[in-house]
Amino acid sequence: MTPRAEHPIRHRRRVGRRRALIGALTAVGVTGAAVAVGGLLSSAGAASAWPEAKGSKPYQRPSRSRPLTTAASSGSTARANFGSGGQGGPGPALRAQGRAVLKNVILGSPAADGIHCLGSCTLENVWWEDVGEDAATFKGTSANSTYTVRGGGARKASDKVFQFNGTGKLVVTKFQVSEFGKLVRSCGNCKKQHKRTVVIDDVDITAPGKSIVGVNANFGDTASLREVRVHGDTKKKIKPCIRFTGNNTGKQPTEIGTGPDGVTCRYKDSDLSYD
Predict the structure, then answer these.
(1) Which of 24, 37, 41, 164 could pair with 151 as two cysteines, CB 3.0-4.6 Å apart?
(2) Could you report the per-residue pLDDT of 83-95, keeping only the tens digit for each?
């Protein structure tokens, strides 16, 4: 399993405990109950309200010998509780493969090691109430892999929200995040490194937080920011884009710069607004 950025040693100790669950509203593998609420999906705009739980419905975890290639749902939103989270917590709550679509789900508090996309995937209207290790990790091995996070939101991420370990393109749009360390981080010390493309478009960022995106300049990563609204950070302490020199040896990556440079960090000051 690919080492997790900036925590390679601790990650190796957890490998044996990883368990794969695949899920969503109509075909879901969860531990605990799911609570249906009205679906929400709109432009992040002024940070739309989080969905509220209404009613409940239990789900059964699918057989590991019968993995789902597409996890999709429509209509209402469900809450799923997965147990303890945080750095060093249990394995992924959900594992998606084969262009999976996961939508209209609230991941309860905490959300273990979140969602692992093993290839192209779409996470639509997914809400993380309390991010565990990471909200989602993208691990596709094809340069044509595309990962889309559309709508939804995340809060209480002590470190990363989205971890980009694989290759391809990650698009985060109409999303909101608060109380976080990093919104997106391209893996700084995975054993196998790739060129990664990140697009962050039409999102709401609410302080406190440390950075919006971190990418590896030496591996050809790019990060584009558009229509990013930052709330509660008038002193601009949250760094929009950090450039690193990454490695494949497990060592701590080196920060080499911040701000737009037209090559790795692709945005203008006007692409961000503050209030």
Answers:
(1) 41
(2) 444 444 445 556 6
